[in-house]
Specification:
The protein is mainly α. It has one domain. The longest helix has 39 residues. It is found in: Cell membrane. This is O-antigen/teichoic acid export membrane protein. Its main location: membrane.
Amino acid sequence: MLVIALRSIARGLEGRPGLVSGAIHAGGLGVRLAFMFALLYLSGPALLGQYGLLASIEVVAIYLAGLEFHAFTTRRYARRPGALRLRIALASHARLLCFSVPAAMLGAGVATWLFGLGLTPLALFGFLVIVATGSVAQEMLRFIVMTQRPVAAAILGFIRTALWQPVALLFVATEQPLEALALTWMAAAVVSLLWGGWMLRGAIFSRIRPGSRYLGRGLKAARNYYAMASASVLQSNLERFVLQLFLGPEAVGIFTFFQNLANALPALIQSSVLNVWLAQLLNQFGQGLQGRFALVAQVQRKVLVTCAILSMGVVVGVTGISLVLSRDTYLYNLWILPALLLAQSLIMWSQPLYLGLFGAHRDRIIMIQSLSVLAATLALCVLCVAQLGITGAVVSQLAGGAGLALLRWVVFVRYRRAGWV
């Protein structure tokens, strides 16, 4: 019933996709903010840190095991959208998921042991289901976006990342709060998978069976993008892992509180701006159309304005709530939030440049950019956290964001002058 009701809402609101999807993400941000403050009151930063580590392990495991095959299929679909292309793409991903889902589950399970999370068997089961469903939902989400249904994509994300959190708070006072979080999160993950399947139901069930040569060609075409995406997701979560190794879950919890708020910014920008223009950007740069550079500049301006407005709103709102609740730990570290928002704003400002390079099939230079920034950020993060603690993690993320944005801009300008994009 929930899936059918949400589907009806999505159909009725598709006339304003950017506004509506942005509003859904804003609602999700509000839920996550309330959830984190509630965790602080009911338990403390250690539980939030453990949850933050699980969230990071999940996304890293999904990306590393997923092989980024969509870099091949979404490009083919963007060049000539159609029902047959969509069915071929989804059938190809279905075959690859037979590998990526078990691999992601294995990697996630090993990571929870390496970082000493000490999950109960039931919590571990719930977390592995989260990872498994996330591997599938990730691919569904991409094709929902490619079929130009950003509202439906935003609903999928809301179910998976926010809908379950108020329910989970009812069980935080139990003897195993992390187990309760994992199980409620798992339930929402299953619902989000059903939602994604319903939205793509016309293309999922087909008799198409892509051959091994086709899959191999796609994996070869996506290899540079896979290296780039893996580097990007590792860079985004690096600070939490290093903080856990050096300082433990309480430090991770404080950093996670502000990082989750800052990370909501790219989700909002992706939903309200980039998803609306994604297919057009890929199509124009894929075909080398005349207005592609003007389109990039237009999207960058929209991203910049939206980042500024949202960042100010988040800082003012969180400051007010922190003052009302009088939580000294978070008030003392409130400076972290604008610093992380600035880092995310720089990355999102450069995202249209990245999409232009991606649409023009400049995968190798994208890979070199990402691996270079990851290597520099890793070294800087370990050094800074060892010397400065949480402050070092903030410095590392800000430097990484600025470095990535600068590299993207320099490369895009150079390639434009050379006629390579």
